[in-house]
Write a structure and sequence with these properties.
The chain has helices spanning about 30-45, 75-80, 85-90, 110-115, 140-150, 150-160, 165-170, 185-195, 200-215, 220-235, 235-245; strands at about 5-10, 15-20, 50-55, 60, 95-100, 105, 120, 125-130, 165, 180. The protein is an alpha/beta fold. Bound molecules: 4-(N,N-dimethylamino)cinnamoyl-COA (DAK).
Length: about 260
Amino acid sequence: MEFQNILTHVDGHVATIRLNRPKVLNALNGQTMDELCAALDAFEADPQVRVVVLTGDERAFAAGADIGEFAGVTPVGMLEGPRGKRWDRIRAFPKPLIAAVSGYCLGGGCELAMACDLIVASETARFGQPEINLGILPGAGGTQRLPRAVGKHRAMEMILTGCHITAQQAYEWGLVNRVVPPEALMDEAYALAREIASKAPVAVRLAKAAVLRSMDTPLDVGLDYERRLFAIAFGTEDKEEGVRAFLEKRKPVFQGR
Ligand code: DAK
């Protein structure tokens, strides 16, 4: 795939998308978001790809939406433009997404990391929702996902003051899964990705869907949803293989069927 603002590659069952606008700290302009969505389309369709790692560079995962594109935008333009659809596309991606975050992870960058399923952070990572300093507020999920991740009062502080928090603080608050030295970031993200990619792919996708559903449904609805997905897993060859392998005391070989 040929892109201008992102780099992609696939190694085994793990795909990587690297945001690549270093001069502007990987600010997420429309073209970058379109390319990101196109890469996700391709990786969703590719049965070889089981997990996607999304990353930036050492200085920034992403410093937010490209502020230059906000000048002169009207409310109607904001509502009817393509922005919302791009974020809906990311939200609908069915395979696990791991954010590997180094440096600035701000505004839309922080929202993008939070839209991923797991976050591995370098010690250099800085998270924040500084939109308030621009006279706006988070618009790509920050006011909804951040409180769910860190709790209301911490989210309020970050969103109302625009402060940045360190990787260690993000870890203590439950925003990230792991914090590692900068040089270990990609190894750690890939180790996690490969571990997940070694599991039964259909069950992984069902589990992701079930966990995400828990964020926005009452418990009884979520439990019912889980029960249905659990039953669907019993229709897969991988379930037969997983159970048989356990009983035969060997490692399962999953095919994604
Ligand atoms: N957009 C455009 N350019 C940016 C940028 C950004 N978000 N962040 C940094 N840059 C550019 C800088 O302008 C500078 O460019 P040059 O001057 O060299 O041409 C270059 O990147 C390096 O930045 P600095 O010189 O400022 O570097 P420093 O180390 O001094 O400072 C910083 C780094 C990250 C603290 C600072 O650049 C900064 O505060 N950046 C802005 C961070 C920010 O406010 N982010 C939130 C943006 S609003 C929605 C979808 C998404 C969103 C909303 C709605 N819908 C679906 C409806 C998202 C909104 C946002 O993210």
